[in-house]
Write a structure and sequence with these properties.
The chain is of the alpha/beta class and 409 residues long. It has 16 helices and 13 strands. It has helices spanning 18-32, 72-90, 100-114, 126-132, 141-154, 165-173, 199-208, 230-243, 257-266, 284-288, 307-313, 324-330, 342-354, 356-373, 376-390, 393-403, and strands at residues 4-9, 36-41, 53-55, 95-99, 118-122, 159-162, 182-184, 216-221, 247-252, 273-277, 293-296, 318-321, 335-337. It has a seven-stranded parallel beta sheet, with helices on both faces. A six-stranded parallel beta sheet has the order 10-9-8-11-12-13, sandwiched between helices. The protein is globular. The relative contact order is 0.12.
Length: 409
């Protein structure tokens, strides 16, 4: 067996979207390679049978928290520290692998207390996410203070893993990160699972969801939120449906389903859109097999974009806003819309539907690209290399020096 790895996940793991998928798949590939893991996370979330998960206590005033930015996280992260401290005292880890900035801060304290290296799995800008969520106003005093804290946290780990090359550039150029080891480990996809389902299964699920028997299904799967471009997707759908009678939108994800259903109705999309709600991650390939075109209207430029890889592995023509991360994953094989422009998004989807032969050819090239460059096995190789780097004798010497005079627990 390999070293014990303490993973810190300051979120309601597992919740079938975004960074949760990255945490799960990284844990899976490392588990497959013999690493013993313990994931310390929040009180909510779906348990994964084969994972050793420790949760913070449930507290009465935090029960309304679902996801995203919240002042409740100050309490949650304090409890996360103590839960992780107990885990370290029970079994000293060989390495701490922390997700999100809150995890990196907790992980840094623990790594210095116990003299072990810290790897920070960078998911995007802390303050950028808070602005995206409408939790902070850019330029406000609170924003400025938290941005300084964020920049400080970026310099604490022994190594940083980023989900995109663009994120690595931002860390260095926009946030002045001085960490010596920054390695890009893109999100991955298991193309054995994310592949086309038998036609009979697709037809059966289509009937269960009440989708029209004919026409094209334009699909989105992921979190429903403003920074994910959900409203823009609905506006683009209204433009597209006004042009064509053979299009139906299938929007899969959560939260705020009823709010977005009402928005769709106000745009005149009644009968032209189906909201499937939360789709368990293990069922995602079956649901994506319904699609003729996949759309990824994410607006954030600091976060990863893992759903693109699921679309690619399914062999789906994929339309996305023109952002650096979208370009990084899709290359010249994607169809791009002007970021934040609903009409441009509608035009891009329309062009895919009008050019089916070319779109199908590009879609299968996208699947090949996903299999060749974005497997979780390749991600596992890179993560292991980072682990070896921070656990080398020279790196351990640097950690020991930085821990001298620490308080013993």
């Amino acid at each position: 067996m390999r070293d014990d790895i303490l993973m810190l996940a300051p979120t309601s793991f597992f919740s079938d979207y975004g960074c949760h998928v990255r945490i799960l798949e990284e844990a899976a590939i490392l588990h497959e390679r013999g690493y013993r893991q313990r994931i310390v996370t929040y009180h909510r979330g779906r348990d994964i049978p084969w994972l050793n998960i420790a949760r913070i206590p449930d507290i009465p005033w935090g029960r309304g928290y679902a996801m995203g930015s919240s002042w409740h996280k100050l309490t949650f992260d304090t409890l996360l520290f103590f839960e992780a401290l107990l885990a370290c005292r029970k079994q000293r880890p060989g390495l701490i692998h922390a997700f999100l900035h809150e995890g990196a801060w907790v992980g840094y304290v623990l790594s210095r207390l116990f003299g072990v290296p810290l790897v920070f799995d960078y998911q995007g800008s802390l303050t950028g996410e808070m602005v995206d969520h409408g939790f902070l106003r850019q330029g406000s005093p609170t924003y400025q203070a938290l941005r300084r804290l964020e920049m400080s946290i970026n310099n604490l780990p022994d190594a940083i893993i980023t989900s995109s090359a663009h994120a690595a550039v931002l860390l260095k150029e926009s946030y002045g990160c001085r960490c010596q080891t920054i390695v890009t480990v893109p999100d991955g996809v298991d193309a054995r699972r994310f592949c086309r389902a038998p036609a009979a299964d697709v037809l059966d699920l289509r009937r269960q969801l009440g989708l029209p028997a004919g026409g094209y299904i334009v699909t989105y799967l992921g979190k429903l939120a403003g920074y994910q471009g959900t409203e823009l997707l609905l506006e683009a759908g209204a433009i597209l449906c006004a042009r064509r009678t053979d299009v139906h939108l299938l929007i899969m994800g959560y939260p705020c389903v009823e709010e977005y259903r009402a928005k769709a109705h106000s745009l005149g999309l009644a009968g032209r859109v189906t909201f499937a709600g939360r789709v368990p991650y293990e069922l995602a390939p079956r649901y994506l097999a319904l699609a003729d075109v996949a759309v990824a209207p994410k607006l954030s430029e600091t976060e990863g974009h893992g759903k693109l890889l699921n679309y690619m592995a399914m062999g789906l023509p994929t339309v996305a806003f023109d952002t650096p991360v979208s370009r990084e994953y899709l290359g010249h094989l994607g169809r791009y819309a002007i970021s934040g422009d609903a009409r441009s998004l509608a035009d891009a989807v329309d062009s895919v539907l009008r050019e089916q032969t070319e779109a199908r050819a590009l879609a299968w090239q996208l699947r090949e690209r996903a299999m060749q460059h974005y497997s979780w096995r390749q991600a596992g190789d890179k993560i292991e290399q980072v682990y070896r780097t921070v656990q080398s004798p020279l790196a351990k010497g640097r950690v020991a020096a930085s821990c001298s005079g620490r308080v013993e627990v």
